[in-house]
Write a structure and sequence with these properties.
Order of helices and strands of chain A: HHHHHHHHHHH
Radius of gyration of chain A: 22 Å
Helix content of chain A: 55-70%
Number of strands of chain B: 10
Number of strands of chain A: 0
Helix content of chain B: 40-55%
Structural class of chain A: mainly alpha
Strand order of the largest sheet of chain B: 6-7-8-3-9-10
Number of domains of chain A: 1
Largest sheet of chain A: none
CATH class of chain B: Alpha Beta
Radius of gyration of chain B: 18 Å
Oligomer: heterodimer
Distance between the termini of chain A: 37 Å
């Protein structure tokens, strides 16, 4: 067999060594986790740049909630909250829901990547498992962040009464990232168990809708019946929305933002560990 | 059956993989010498992909052991993953990224140091003749281009062993020949050990230095192509397969639905 004449490879003629500790794993695990996560997040940003129509179309849904549902419901007596515009009240909930939507359906990408061989490829690299999961979660965060910035711009342009403080906005985005990362990990955990796209779609909807409606995204917990309030208190989305609302609008549940951060961070840690353990099983 | 005397790049001893009741690989042993192109042949469902998954640390064997690039696949899986390149049967580059972005991504996730990354990417581009397509989204590339891009992404960490699972499935004859010629050039110039699975006997006979034939999870024959033909008084590897299994390769090809689906999906993506 003749080598391709045009190829004339310039790769090292030295035969790769056997049994020699590879350079790729000579750095510390934490460094490799950070580098791998950054690489995966950057890939997501690049994909987003190539397909910015996607983020615009995804941004339509929260705007519909805000301007159609919010406008229709703003005069309902039970939902009036003093002088606060109902649209401002639901803005953090709608923002969290839209980010959760992105995160939950990230699991679909895992199933797709398994089907097309990308997952096997990644799992056969020295990339730490946790960094694959963190990188995917970071990808969901990048998309949620762009969407949130668009939504905040619309809120500002429409003059909807949001508290514009630097700390509030930065805190809002930080909480949103944490919540999105947590739900993205949950989604990957689900994808590892479900394995079929059609079934995942159904289960994704089944999980997302109760999480959304049994939270404080659209109405205060005080209007819920007792049993639903118990469910809402066990729902991590409730704490995410409470934190966002406290920082962005100045009203919230218990009004203790650090506690909301703590609950969402705990949920994220739990989902990260579980997804890291389950992820390699997704290829089987 | 010849086993290389020097330290093999891949050593498999009495390897068994069971999925509940199903024995996908049943007590397989073989060795691949450093720097050779070794073909793992067999019909769909023979256990080739399962074998590759064990050797790339994606799957734990039920029994037996395997050493890749001098590292145990179970005890030193991280070192194995850092020493290999792997191209699964399905198209693994990201269609939503450009060819260059795919190269950069795999350079980063395979741990190529930042100061060497650009140079290695340039080398891979030159080796696989990718220059004209670097700015194109991978999903717009032809089947042959995609496979070359995939191979390029697997070369960035300068792997001691390159695993390719059915690299020519879904390609037209010209693209198939190009893929094989690039692999041969890679082996010749970089000394990379190549373990490739295929069910196309003609390609295996033509391009592999040594072969192992698998059927129903067992290794039924191994050696150099000429050696196999002579030993089984056959004129082609199809005849060798029939001689050692008692079935024709066409009969054996009635693979599982999932295998057929996977191959069709790859063929569809490759256009």
């Amino acid at each position: 067999m003749s080598a391709p004449s045009a190829a004339s490879p310039t790769v090292s003629a030295e035969r790769p060594g056997l049994g020699r500790r590879p350079q790729a794993i000579s750095t510390r695990a934490s460094t490799r986790i950070a580098a791998g996560t950054a690489a995966m997040a950057q890939a997501e940003m690049r994909k987003l740049r190539h397909d910015h129509i996607d983020i615009i179309t995804r941004s339509v849904q929260p705007l519909l909630w805000l301007f159609i549902f919010g406008t229709a419901m703003r005069n309902v007596h039970a939902l009036t909250l003093g002088a606060l515009d109902y649209r401002a009240y639901i803005a953090p909930g709608v923002m969290a829901q839209a980010a959760m939507f992105i995160a939950i359906f990230f699991g679909l990408a895992v199933i797709w990547e398994r089907d097309v061989g990308q997952l096997q490829r990644l799992l056969a690299t020295p990339l730490p498992r946790s960094s694959i999961v963190l990188g995917k979660a970071a990808g969901a965060c990048v998309r949620a962040l762009v969407q949130a910035l668009l939504l905040l711009s619309v809120l500002a342009a429409a003059g909807i009464g949001v508290r514009w403080t630097l700390v509030g906005v930065v805190g809002t985005l930080a909480m949103l990232m944490l919540g999105t990362a947590a739900f993205a990990c949950m989604s990957m955990l689900l994808a590892a168990a479900v394995k079929e796209r059609e079934r995942f779609m159904g289960i994704g909807q089944l999980i997302m809708m109760p999480l959304f409606f049994a939270s404080s995204a659209l109405y205060p917990l005080s209007v819920m019946p007792g049993w639903l309030r118990v469910v809402a208190h066990a729902n991590p989305l409730t704490y995410e929305v409470q934190g966002l609302r406290q920082m962005l609008v100045g009203v919230g549940g218990a009004g203790v933002v650090w506690l909301d951060f703590l609950v969402v961070a705990g949920f994220f840690a739990l989902m990260l560990v579980a997804a890291t353990r389950a992820y390699p099983k997704a290829i089987l | 059956m010849s086993v290389p005397a020097s330290q093999p790049a891949v050593l498999v001893e009495d390897l068994v993989v069971r999925f509940d009741e199903l024995e996908a690989v049943g007590g397989v042993s073989f060795a691949v010498a450093a720097g050779e192109v070794f073909g793992l042949l067999g019909p769909n469902g023979a256990g080739k992909t399962t074998m590759i998954r064990v050797l790339t640390t994606l799957l734990e064997p039920t029994a037996g052991h395997a050493v890749v690039a001098g590292f145990d696949v179970q005890g030193e899986s991280l070192a194995v993953r850092a020493s290999i390149g792997y191209i699964p049967q399905a198209i693994s580059v990201d269609g939503a990224l450009t060819a260059y972005e795919n190269l950069d991504f795999y350079g980063r996730v395979t741990g190529v140091p930042r100061r060497e990354r650009r140079e290695r990417i340039e080398e891979a581009i030159e080796t696989m003749e990718l220059a004209p397509m670097l700015g194109r989204l991978a999903r717009t590339l032809s089947g042959g281009m995609l496979r070359r891009l995939e191979i390029a992404t697997a070369l960035l960490n300068r792997p001691a062993v390159l695993f390719l699972d059915e690299p020519t499935v879904g390609l037209d004859p010209t693209a198939r020949r190009m893929v094989w010629e690039h692999l041969e050039a890679l082996r010749e110039h970089a000394g990379t050990t190549i373990l490739v699975t295929t069910h196309v006997m003609e390609e295996a006979e033509r391009y592999c230095e040594r072969l192992a034939i698998m059927d129903l999870g067992r290794l039924v024959e191994q050696g150099e192509p000429a050696e196999l033909l002579a030993r089984n008084a056959s004129e082609s590897l199809e005849e060798v397969f029939t001689a050692v299994t008692g079935r024709t390769i066409e009969e054996a090809h009635e693979g599982r639905l999932s295998d057929v689906r996977a191959q069709r999906r790859v063929a569809h993506r490759l256009g």
